[in-house]
């Protein structure tokens, strides 16, 4: 009979599970987790037992709708807190029965996006209509809080990608419409715009109206048809905003003479694991429309178009390479 994993190993396993399910895990994170599992039999045992509850952790029901945003936010937070604690308790009991681990792990792990008002899992998209007629589309692995008061409609963007179309209900029309990010603020000026995590900060693309971006001690107006990347250090240059970047709302990625490496990077966002290509084919160009809710089908289409071979291995690792 295998020994029960130690509390320290349990904590490490839960930490890895949260990282890999966060929607922001890098290929290096997956490789590091794999090395961690191989380092000791207890690591593999803890990981296998966590996997038994993986599906239960993902099936947390969404908060019930309420008459006002204030009530909805308060009740949804309460429900999410209760349900998350219940699921983590299951993990601790299943893996090692260590109640003491629960309090320690909960404080250290990045729970905040998981407890947001509106979230999506990896590969999931969601549409939300608010009471002021604002429309929100959330792409894969996204998290957003919404908070209205007498003077402001505040949206706290934690991760992922969202498309916002501002509502104009008379009772809310005079309230500032602010999206708060980790790198700065975006103030909507009656508009439709996209906010997305970017390797250099936050990408904002405007499709109707305009927004005001405030970051790095500077403010800049971004008009319809333009985008920019901003961070705590700087505001980038204005670039043309492509409507192809909205194709995910219809469940597809549109590629126009796109580098293979970039297309695979986009597809990787929609499922767990890594999707890579050999260095010698990374610069190949491809055009097409690829489904985001059936990544294997998309990869088959890519491979057929470019005459490549798909090599799939355990732990959701996929490599595209020339046929040998």
From TrEMBL:
Coiled coil: none annotated. The chain crosses the membrane at residues 88-106. Residues 117-212 form the FecR protein domain. Residues 11-52 form the FecR N-terminal domain. InterPro entries: FecR, FecR_N, Ferrdict_sens_TM. It comes from the Bacteria. Keywords: Membrane, Transmembrane, Transmembrane helix. PANTHER family: PERIPLASMIC SIGNAL SENSOR AND SIGMA FACTOR ACTIVATOR FECR-RELATED (PTHR30273), PROTEIN FECR (PTHR30273:SF2). This is FecR domain-containing protein. It comes from Methylobacillus methanolivorans. The lineage of its organism: Bacteria, Pseudomonadati, Pseudomonadota, Betaproteobacteria, Nitrosomonadales.
